Every structure is written in C-alpha cells, then in structure tokens.
Amino acid sequence: MSKTIQAIRGTRDILPEEGRYWQFVEATTHSILRRALYQQIRTPIFEQTPLFERGIGEATDVVGKEMYTFTDRGDRSITLRPEGTAGVVRSYIENKLYATGGVQRLWYTGPMFRYERPQAGRQRQFHQVGVEVLGSSDPRADAETISIATTLLKSFGLQNLHLAINSVGDTADRQRYRDALVEYLTPFKSDLDRDSQDRLDRNPLRILDSKDERTQEIAQSAPSILDYLGDGSKRHFDRVCDLLTQLGIDYAINPRLVRGLDYYTHTAFEIQSDDLGAQATVCGGGRYDGLVEQLGGKATPAVGWAIGMERLIILLQKIGCSIGSAIDFFIISKGDRAEAQALAISHRLRDAGFTAELDLSASAFGKQFRRADRSGAKACLILGDAEAETATVNLKWLATGDQETIAQADLLEHADDWRVRLKSEPAPQNNSVSV
Ligand code: ATP
Ligand code: MG
C-alpha cells in the first residue's frame, strides 16, 4: 500500500457532522444580511501581492510574517488573501462600483490564509464572513454595521460576548498621539518584548495590543488616544457611542484597542467571547476612510468588520446548540416493485418541499424500521408487496405511532395537513435547530 497523504498543517476538513453548523451559520447570516439589503461580492482567493502590502500595511504582522506569497509561472508575485477587505476595495475601484452613487453595502465570505502557529481557533486556512459599507462617513454607518454583527451573534443564542470600542481619530490626531506614545514608551524600550521594540519606530500604536505581559503592564499607563482626538473625531466617536446606547447595545470603551495604520480612522471595535480561551476575538472591525484612496481610488469613507467562522462554530458547539438535519419522511421498502415505487415517492415528496430519506439497504423491515427510528425522522413511509400490489403506502408518525394507509395517487393531497403536523410534531430525537 502506498503512503497516505494528509491535509496540510493548519488546515482541516469540515466533515458532514460539523458541516451542518456551517450551513446553519451561513443560512442565518445570509438572511440577516439580505433583510438589511447588503449585497454579496465574491472576489478571487489570490491577488497581486502589492494589494495586501498597501491594503493591510507592511508594518503589520499579517503582511510582515503571515502571508502565503509565491511566484507563479509567469514570475508574478501572488498572495493567497489573508483577509477580505483589500480585495473588496480593489474590486470596488476596478469595477467603478461607486459610479451608481450613494452607499454600497457589501458582504463576502470565504477562506482566508495566514501562516500562523496553528492552535484551537487559529488556523492557516480559516473562513470569514464580513461586511463593508463604502461611501458613508455617517456615524450611523458605524452603528449599523456593529449592530448587524451583534444581532447576528445573538441570533445564534451566544452569550458572554463583549463589545469593546475605541476611536483612533484621523491622521492628524494619530500623529499627535503617536509622538506622545513614543515619548512615553522610549524610557521603557529595553523592557518591551522584541517585536514591540521594533515597532517603536515603525508602528508604535500596535505596541498597545502586544500579548506580552510586561509590555501590557507598561501599556496600561500609556497616554490614552481619546485625549488626543480633535473636535470632529470626538463628535464622531460620541455619536457612535450614543447610537449604540440607543440601540440597547452594551459596550466598553477600550482606549488601547487600535489599528495601527494611517488609513484606519475613527471607530475600531472587537467582539470577544469568554468561552474561547486565548483566541477570544470573534469579530473585528472599524472604519477605514483612507483605504480606497491608498489603493488608488477616489477618497471614500468606509467601515466594516469580519467574523471568524471557525471561532463562531466552536462557540455554537460549546453552548450545546445541536443541529439536526430534520428529516420529515424516512422511506422503507422491500421487494422490486415496492422499491421502485418508494424511489418515485421520495422524489415526489422532495418536489413538494419535504425532506425525505430513502433506505437503500434492502434489508429486513425490522432493520429498516430501527434505522428510521434512529434517523430522527418524524414520519416513516412503508411499502411492501401488499402496498405495491394495491398502489398504496403505509404512513406511520414516529412520535405517536399513528398509522394510516394512503393511495399513492393521492399522496400529495395530504401535503398541506402534513406541513402543519410536521411543524407541531416533536421529533423523536431532540434536535433543537434545523437547517
Ligand atoms: P487575532 O488577534 O486573533 O490574531 P486578528 O486581529 O488577526 O485576530 P482580524 O484580522 O481582525 O483578526 O480578523 C477578524 C477575525 O477573523 C478574528 O477576530 C478571528 O475571529 C478570525 N481570525 C483571524 N485570524 C484567524 C486564524 N488564523 N484562524 C482562525 N480565525 C482567525
Ligand atoms: Mg492575527
């Protein structure tokens, strides 16, 4: 036997059992975003490397250490996308999405790639769903996107979530703050972790979210960026906070929550969970009024977020949200004629909108019955020689044991009654959510 080949480190297969969670999360997400009239955009999984260097920033960990970059056969530098925003903004500019005027509300989902140390909730291929609102500087756009994120996470029944929010001001505010921060940190330079020492010149704001304990201690007493905001930035931030309060969304202001690059402006936020251990952040986002221009477009204000799907699904599994695949009818049959009729019935039921599983085993009725019970189906349809002969089918409701015989020709005349009954009938197994 030849040697087996394994999945690449930091990637994983999503097997059918877990796939149900993905479908549930995707279906719920789509329906919430559809009602808010966000439109989906799908951009390529790889892009020219400079898009990310300019769109994320060379001084970030993502660009500095985490990108999957390679040279293709045409000698071009290509990068597997580490996040979604840069590609969306490139597409927005390239396809002149701004030409219709007004605000573009977009969303995307798909795999992202970062060369990181794999651990629980951290992979090299992971998935995000994200939104981007382009063309509005109104604080209501910030509040709208944040509120959609919290609605979405709450719709899954998640608790113990914390929204942290901050303002990083505009470029001028940040320049003033940066100077003050460097002045404060320089005397501690030798106490900072290595990465932070490097960042002191290149990207000092990022030092504030260093994970190193000693650095964090030092950062605790650093000046607060909120004391360096100009009037316009202050007004924007106060208004966003006010709107969140009016929407009944709890938040905590965290002046050490930053995005270190010049095209990030004003609002920065994160949603963390108590139930995720070290990889606590489920959602990260904020305003990036300078990015469209940075990537060669006309200056356009924008705000967005991204949710890490793996972390979301870990949370769903932790709270014990069990997702059944909700089988309406399990169909068992034996004998050539009955088996052919059962196959036809399975298609008729599906065409009418029911879920139906056909037992293909041809094993004894007893065994097929046991499988029907285990399947979690609400009803079972039974066809043997007698039913085949009379062109009937035997229907059994599995929770109550109620049975009736129905002519195959009249099968779908019962469809409306069944829909009502299937809704109220408890499933024999305890499936709390269905996809
Ligand atoms: P972290 O601090 O955990 O590295 P980040 O700041 O790099 O997160 P963002 O770039 O803001 O993360 O991405 C948004 C979300 O995507 C994160 O909050 C997280 O849920 C998810 N995410 C980011 N990197 C990974 C990864 N390597 N594996 C799984 N999920 C990830
Ligand atoms: Mg990261």
Please provide a written account of the structure:
- This protein has 435 residues and is α/β, with parallel strands linked by helices.
- It has helices at 16-35, 49-56, 61-66, 85-94, 139-155, 171-185, 194-202, 213-220, 231-246, 291-294, 309-318, 336-351, 365-375, 385-390, 415-424, and strands at 39-40, 46-48, 68-71, 77-80, 104-113, 125-134, 161-167, 252-253, 265-273, 281-287, 302-308, 323-324, 329-333, 356-358, 379-383, 392-397, 403-407, 433-434.
- Helix 12 (336-351) links the parallel strand 13 and strand 14 (356-358).
- Helix 2 (49-56) crosses helix 4 (85-94).
- It is elongated and about 90 Å long.
- The site of adenosine-5'-triphosphate has 17 residues, from strand 6, strand 10, strand 11 and helix 11.
At CATH level 3, the topology of the largest domain is BirA Bifunctional Protein, domain 2
SS class: alpha/beta
Sheet of most strands: 8 strands, mixed
Shape designation: elongated
Give the names of the bound compounds.
Answer: adenosine-5'-triphosphate, magnesium ion
Mean pLDDT rating? 93
Number of domains: 2
CATH superfamily of the largest domain: Bira Bifunctional Protein, Domain 2
- The count of β-strands is 18
